[in-house]
Specification:
The chain is of the alpha/beta class. The chain is 33% helix and 25% strand. The protein has a domain of 159 residues: 2-Layer Sandwich (D-Amino Acid Oxidase, Chain A, domain 2), CATH 3.30.9. The structure holds flavin-adenine dinucleotide. Keywords: FAD, Flavoprotein, Oxidoreductase.
Length: 429
């Protein structure tokens, strides 16, 4: 019902809004807002990535009326379809951080969900490897951090033992993480969307949140059809076509969350963290009839990422990546419309060969082909210490019913169901 109302309202209001704004010479923002149709809604989730979808499902299961606004023509076309598809065990994150807590809880929920809903996944295990003696200490630190986080089954192995498990591997020592795995991310999102819709959630695609404003201590959300804001890139700010008056708003716009929060007029800018973007490219292994490895193979983490690792998908295809390249910010409309540059330059492959050969010496020259790229929504820049996930409610931002999710980088996929559970428990009850 809401879906139809929304479509009808968006269609019919487009022309009247533009006519109104052309008639008056310089309409003030508040005058202009008065001319725009308004709809009352219960919960608005901005962004249909894996986190937004998981939140929408959780709210719908709790009996709330949920409207998901997604700028793209379908769900999951942002970072959620541009990652390693690894179910992380929870080793890399500082004890008691949200990343550690949500990764562990999310991993358990995810394995359970996949098993119960027929989502393809496999607990294939991971080896984190030290290839030089200077890396052994780092592996020991990871082991103790993982144990402190409560990760089960971690075991330090001598190189010969790891190399017996994986004959193509070369390393001095390895940390075995038996609970790491892989998941078909698209199938996961499809299943979550289906469940959310079955419980009454509405997904409005090709619809963009272009801003918002505060009325008293609550927020109203400005939306437009995505096709109508394309022309605003690099030009005038877009005029909203419809204003939503919600009880609850979850800003889970991924890479755009901070820019979107900046466009909420009246929101205290001090609650919006600085944002940084780190692109990561993947290269795939061509002509491999049998994958060289059965486990995920990860080097020691590097600044900004987990290192160029080996990931297998459920069809046995092998990819290596992602590397780390810091990139600049986009203007807000381009970022809402996901106009980031995701091309993979074949030049970057030259950096991949030596990095991979440190643990896979038999990698043949010419065997890597450009794959895809993803962009990490980071809250710390190059050389700065990593920053935790931010899940920010009214207690911090002062706006009734507004929840901002900032910096949901890895392990965001693994954590998605736990983040949704947390929002449901902390903010809905
Ligand atoms: C290279 C890479 C590898 C990774 N590997 C892993 C891994 O192996 N395991 C793991 O657990 N995690 C991994 N992650 C992290 C994981 O992919 C993300 O944490 C997760 O996908 C984030 O989901 P999201 O829903 O928050 O964001 P997104 O998937 O980016 O979704 C945000 C959505 O919001 C929409 N949107 C944006 N602005 C607007 C607007 N104004 N109006 C309407 N819609 C809007 C976008 O179109 C998009 O669909 C990786 C990330 C990267 C970059």
């Amino acid at each position: 019902m809401l879906r139809h109302t929304l479509r009808r309202t968006l269609k019919s209001c487009t022309s009247s809004v533009w006519i109104q704004s052309r008639k008056s010479t310089i309409p003030s923002q508040s005058l202009l807002l008065e001319t725009i149709p308004k709809e009352n809604v219960d919960c608005v989730v901005i962004g249909a990535g894996v986190v937004g979808i998981a939140v929408a499902r959780d709210l719908a299961l709790k009996g709330r009326d949920v409207l998901v606004i997604e700028s793209a023509p379908t769900f999951g076309s942002g970072t959620s379809s541009r990652n390693s598809e690894v179910i992380h065990a929870g080793i890399y994150y500082p004890p008691n951080s949200l990343k550690a807590i949500f990764c562990l809880r999310g991993r358990k929920l995810l394995y359970q969900y996949c098993a119960n809903h027929g989502v393809p996944h496999k607990q294939i295990g991971k080896l984190i490897v030290a290839t030089g003696s200077s890396e052994i200490q780092k592996l020991i630190v990871l082991l103790s951090q993982g144990r402190e986080n409560g990760v089960e089954g971690l075991r330090m192995m001598e190189g010969f033992e790891a190399m017996r498990m994986e004959p193509e591997l070369k390393c001095l020592k390895a940390l075995l993480s038996p609970y790491s795995g892989i998941v078909d991310t698209h199938a996961l999102m499809l299943s979550l969307v289906g469940e959310a819709e079955n419980h009454g959630a509405t997904f409005s695609y090709n619809t963009t949140v272009v801003g918002g404003h505060l009325e008293g201590d609550s927020i109203q959300i400005h939306i437009s059809q995505s096709k109508n804001i394309e022309k605003c890139i690099g030009g005038c700010p877009p005029q909203p076509e419809l204003i939503l008056v919600p009880n609850l708003v979850v800003n889970s716009a991924g890479l755009s969350s901070p820019s979107l929060a900046k466009s909420f007029k009246g929101l205290d800018s001090r609650v919006i963290p600085p944002s940084y973007y780190a692109q990561g490219c993947y290269f795939t292994l061509s002509n491999n009839k049998t994958p060289p490895f059965e486990h995920l193979i990860y080097p020691i983490p590097e600044d900004g990422g987990l290192g160029v690792h080996v990931t297998l998908d459920l069809d046995g295809h092998v990819k290596f990546g992602p590397d780390v390249e810091w990139i600049g910010e986009l203007d807000s409309i381009s970022s809402f419309l996901n106009k980031f540059d995701y091309s993979v330059s074949s030049d970057r492959v030259q950096k991949f060969y030596p990095e991979i050969r440190r643990y896979y010496p038999n990698l043949k020259e010419g065997s890597l082909e450009p794959g895809y790229a993803g962009i990490r929504p980071k809250l710390s820049g190059p050389g700065q210490p990593p920053v935790d996930f931010i899940i920010q409610g009214e207690d911090i931002n002062g706006v009734r019913g507004l929840i901002n999710l900032f910096g949901i980088e890895s392990p965001g996929l693994t954590s998605s169901l736990a983040i949704a559970e947390h929002i449901g428990l902390k903010f809905i009850g």
